[in-house]
């Protein structure tokens, strides 16, 4: 209902309730500038600190700069050069407790056949709504706020 976000480029309405206690840091790696910008804007409104990156190399460098200050990696799967799962594996060599959410237009089943992912991860299929994004991050980060269905 106008909330579709990743892949659609429009946001008409948001079920918006800022998470006062969040203040966690999310490393966002997305090669599509418009999608990355929208995701980062929504996350900032929700109270998260955001480290935006346009590709895997930038994401790896940012993870080195911010280290354990990063609470979650939110990344596209298919990107030019190194893909998201490869990048996540490299980052988790130094930050093994880092939680990861992969975003993709591919189904999770199709993705698991194509990309080897060795560690636990969460998945968010594009296009997704702003509400779905914030609920997924709340779940993964273990925020105590109740998730609306």
Descriptors:
single chain, Rossmann fold, five-stranded parallel sheet, 5 helices, 5 strands
Structure description:
There is one protein chain. A five-stranded parallel sheet has the order 2-1-3-4-5, with helices on both faces. It has one domain: 3-Layer(aba) Sandwich (Rossmann fold). Residues 1-22 and 144-149 have low confidence and may be disordered. The chain is globular. Helix 1 links the parallel strand 1 (25-29) and strand 2. The longest helix has 13 residues, at 33-45. 36% of the residues lie in helices and 17% in strands. It contains five helices and five strands; from the N terminus they run E-H-E-H-E-H-E-H-E-H. With 149 residues, the protein is of the alpha/beta class. It has helices at residues 33-45, 56-66, 84-94, 108-114, 130-141, and strands spanning 25-29, 49-53, 72-76, 99-104, 122-125.
Cross-sheet strand order for the largest sheet: 2-1-3-4-5
- What is the total tally of β strands? 5
The major pleated sheet works out as: 5 strands, parallel
**Helix/strand order, N-terminal first:** EHEHEHEHEH
Fraction in beta strands: 15-25%
The helicity comes to 25-40%
Shape call: globular
- In the CATH scheme, the class would be Alpha Beta
Q: How confident overall, as mean pLDDT?
A: 81
How many helices?
5
Assembly form of the protein? single chain
Q: What Rg do the Cα atoms give? A: 14 Å
- Label the structural class: alpha/beta
Q: How many structural domains does the protein architecture include?
A: 1
Tell me which CATH architecture applies here: 3-Layer(aba) Sandwich
* CATH fold title: Rossmann fold
Uncertain ranges: 1-22, 144-149
CATH level-4 homologous superfamily:
Response regulator
Distance between the termini: 15 Å
